[in-house]
Amino acid sequence: MIFPRLRNISIKNKLIVIIVSSSLFVCLITTICFVGLEVYSFRSNMVRDLIGLAKVVGMNCIAPLDFLDNESAEEVLNSFTARPYILQAAVYDKDGALFSQYNSSDNSPVVPYASKTKEAFFFQDGRLSVYVPIGEGENLAGLMYLVADMTEFRSKLIRYVSVVLSILIGALFIAWSISLKLQKVISDPIAALTMTIAQVRQEKNYAVRAKKEGDDELGTLTEGLNSMLDQIQKRDHALEKAKVIAEDANLAKSTFLAQMSHEIRTPMNGVLGMSSLLLNTPLSNKQEKFVNTIQQSGKLLLNVINDILDFSKIEAGKLELDNISFNVRTTIAEVLDIFSDSMQQKGLKLTCSIDPAIPSLLIGDSGRLGQIVINLLGNAIKFTQRGEVKIGINLEKQEGIFFCLCFRVTDTGIGISPEQKNTIFSAFAQADNSTTRKFGGTGLGLTISKQLVLLMDGTIGVESNLGKGTTFWFTAKFTSGHHNDASAVLDEQKNRFETRMTEKSTPNFQAHILVAEDNETNQMVIEGMLKHLGCKVDLVYNGLEAVKTVTKHSYDLVFMDCQMPDMDGYDATREIRKLEKRDAASNKGAGLPVRRPIVALTAHTMKGDREKCLTSGMDDYLGKPFEKSGLIKMLEKWVGTTIVTENIDEKGR
Asked: What distance in Å separates the CA atoms of residue 258 and residue 602, rounded to the nearest whole number?
């Protein structure tokens, strides 16, 4: 029981306990041996002395025995009065009869007879009794018997033991005192090692080193610890360096993607915008076909750009989901509308079934859900030459207000081999190299879809046989929207309806708009769109001109490009807001000036770009390339609109 308890005390106390315990054990063994030897020596000496005394007295009793002189024998025995420790004495003749006796007390019992020929002794009741023959052989005259008190012997023994115990206690005190000093030779280096390890563990500082005290085993242990810390420190430096390199590389990649996105989206805005404006002019059927082809190609290129940006956001962990109320049936219907023309052109049959047990209102990211379905449905249509494509949505599991839906997209297309299924969700993966050449695409759609599904706490998989069609399925978890205000979905449906009505008529905005844009093509695009919507437009080429111009005119809305020479859109917006505050302070109660709505007009679409615009003082964000519907939405939000009865023809003019 003692040794396990030692595990819970300090090394210093352990050493003291070990030293003192060892000393105590050795001293106890030595003391026991010495006390035992001394007791044996005392007893032996007492027996020897008493037997010697009995022999001397017995020799003096030979004559009285030979002459049967009892009185002389008694006189001899009475000499024991000078020896108080002699309690009894007796002389027996050679026949064993009691010849004479001596008692130190009148109440002493009668002395028993013992062997008359053998010398013997025994200890009993704190007394020593001896029998000594008087004479030998034929000259045996009788037997001498003596009884001695052991009190003096016990007193000597107690004194001896007391002295020994005093010495033992003193030795233990000395051992304890010495151990207090000697244990430091071992405990101090160990304590120093322990403190070093604790400091490293608490502070995570691997630059700390333990001090080596000697060349013994503790010195070797100290060297080992310091060597280990050296290796850890070198490893951490290497990891930190690698981390910095990786972060720099990731930052460079993000910067490159952001810059490339801006540089690509800016001309793409010109391509799509100018083609949209061109469609609003009188065109022959052939010309209209060419322009539509330009728009479709531009949109395909934009999809590629969006896929790469989404993949970059996913890699950087910057892709987040929204939580809004939506109707899953409406979301799927909108996706099906997108593919209705392509299905008809290829002669494919499209069917859809939705489990009636699915609630009409759910909370989640309907936009990203639609993106997953678009990717899967687009692949199904792309790789199916004949037959049908089916989409099915079932309620897989419900736990309280949480619903897990399972989406399945099945086609009768070319299928996927078992080997290809292992890499189908990897980045930039296609079924084989000829797939990209034949069907196009970046190979990122399924990778992005998988990551989006994971963000929705779901799983994704594929079932396919080469040449026999494919089924992609995924699950996603949503929250029931019935416990929230359903007006959000109703408003959303109302907005969609109003948007469709807007597409059937030309809105007219009686607004004065300032556009700060350095790209001439984009100036032509947005100016053409705004003028077509009844707006008066002023154009400037940089932020400095925007600041100067905005102080001279009262604009209903400012579209501000973010990247411009001399002064970018962020600094220009901040400067405009400062001027507004200065003017407000100078009015002194005459009424604050109208805060000019400023909408960012930028090709930067990475995460954080919108927040950066809003932080600089802008009110909203419109990413390039944009369509006229997006421009209309911004004007409706910040200016207001008047719907006129002029209808747009089937060509959108």
From this structure: 11
